[in-house]
Amino acid sequence: MKVTRRQFLKTAVGAAVAAGMPAFPLRSAFAQPKKAVREFRFSASPARVNLGAGPDFVAWTYNGQVPGPEIRVREGEIIRVVLKNFLPEGTTIHWHGVPVPNIMDGVPVVTQKPVMPGETFVYEFEARPAGSYMYHSHVHYQLDQGLYGPLIIEPARPQGAYDREYTLVLEDWVMRDGGGVADTQRRPPMGMGGMMGGMRRGRGGLASGNGPLLEPVYDGYAVNGRVGPAIRPLEVSKGERVKLRLLNPSSATIYNLRLAGHTLTITHTDGRPIKPIKTDVLRIGMGERYDVEFLADNPGRWLLGAAEQGFGEGQLRIPVHYQGVSRKEAIVPTFHRGLRFASYWDFQALHSSEASASKPADRSYSQQLSGGMHSPYWTINGYVYPDSERLGVRKGERVRIGYWNRSMMSHPMHLHGHFFQVVNPSVPQDRWVLKDTVIVDPMQRIDIEFLADNPGTWFHHCHNLYHMEAGMANVVLYES
Ligand code: C2O
Ligand code: CU
Fold first, then answer.
1. What's the CA-to-centroid distance between 463 and ligand 2, angstroms?
2. Which ligand is nearest to the CA of 142?
3. Who lines ligand 1 at CB under 6 A?
4. Where would a tag sit more exposed on the chain, N or C end, judged by fewer CB atoms within 10 A?
């Protein structure tokens, strides 16, 4: 999934010309140029896949491939996806991070009826704002069966001074028929006896009956659909500035990444530009996206790898090869004390935005995140979705949500339809960073604020798929 800037410009201009409009339309008050429509056809269907190493197995796919096809368009274009469902059950697609109109948001029951087997549904929305996003099914465990893919919106005018760009989709896999719902080892939640021994539970859920599934023990960590030794090397040349778009559609894995021999500079969080900041280690939770850059100034063979946290994540290693270097062994990153771990508190928005007009919140909600101890359910304020509270707001309000994680696991909380600011008392309000997914760590409190500017019923949940399906979700709702 490598694109050079020249290639992208060529294809983008090509698409505009094919759509019968000038490549660089002039805006005028009288004739608003018609927006170019970029149409994609997606067939959701089971397919036999192989991740380049390990067994063949049946995953659920878009167009027979994992991850799904890359959608790459230019800001302001119209994305149209014609989804045809060949799965044995209903499905939807959610455009994670893109503030689409509510009816295009792809949440079953909340924003649309699931697209049933044999049916077709057309998603259409404007690609805005530019940034790194992803798309995925929002039905049950389908995300962990393979139904996700990258969505990149290029800025209308080229930005950034990089020479080369790669998109890296980070994936956790159960490499058996069915993926995440296969009959495989499951991790008991913290407090229920730890990792030792594991538990074996299949689709039927817990012994008690139809409880939610526990997180599986993954046996493959993939990048762009390839695991372990099959992961494709990133080719770079000395002196280049390389941009990486890191997307984490994994169902239950947070990665701590480090590139041996280099320092990463974070330029965007969840697609939004920040004041560039250097880090040794990049932490990326489920649903998060980071754009980073590095200067290729240290010829050799290196690995961009994940720290091992006890679940096999350390297998995720992406070779970085300098052209013309013939050394065989790649150098592995080491994770030791004293490394710089840039965190939300170090990030500052690059531009002050409308969403950050300095004013106090008009309304606030507190959300206690708990569960995992004595029951298979995960809760917000003690409720399990769909019996949870509804967070009512009014259009135009600035809304604060205060998270308090009272459990021993991290929860990447995601709000649909909006970017929110992460409240950070140590920087001015108009520089609070914009994101759409934020990791709330065990026992931590984090507040967010957003401008209610996109009316609808918006899903709001933990992006650990197994926590979401076990109840950690509710909706934010308002009328125009
Ligand atoms: Cu990517 Cu509601 O999720
Ligand atoms: Cu969670």
1. 6
2. 1
3. 94, 96, 136, 138, 287, 414, 416, 459, 461, 463
4. C
Query: How many whole angstroms from 93 Cα to the centroid of ligand 1?
Result: 10
CA distance 87 to 99: 27
What is this structure's pTM? 0.90
Residue 418: alpha-carbon gap to chain centroid: 14
* Nearest ligand to the C-alpha atom of residue 110: 1
For the chain, first and last CA: distance in Å?
Answer: 40
Burial of 290 (0-12, 13-18, 19+ CB in 10 A): buried
Structure confidence by residue, pLDDT tens digits, 342-398? 999 999 999 886 656 678 899 999 999 999 777 889 999 999 999 999 999 999 999
Q: Which atom of ligand 1 is nearest to the CA of 416?
A: 2
Q: In the chain, pLDDT over 70 holds for what percent of residues?
A: 88
- Between 448 and 358, the higher pLDDT residue: 448
199-to-183, 211, 213, 253, 373 alpha-carbon distances in Å: 10, 14, 11, 18, 16
Return the half-sphere exposure (C-beta side, CA atoms, 13 A cut-off) of residue 432: 23
d(CA 338, CA 324): 33
Tokens 């197995």 appear where? 57
Q: Could you tell me which residues come within 8 angstroms of residue 37 by beta carbon, excluding any fewer than 6 positions away?
A: 19, 77, 78, 80, 124
Tokens of 62: 């878009």
Residue 461 CA: which ligand 1 atom is closest?
A: 2
Ligand nearest to the CA of 270: 1
pLDDT tens-place string over residues 292-308: 999 999 999 999 999 99
Going by alpha carbons, the residue nearest to atom 3 of ligand 1 is 96
Residue 474: both structure tokens together = 């509710």
pLDDT at residue 196 in the model: 37
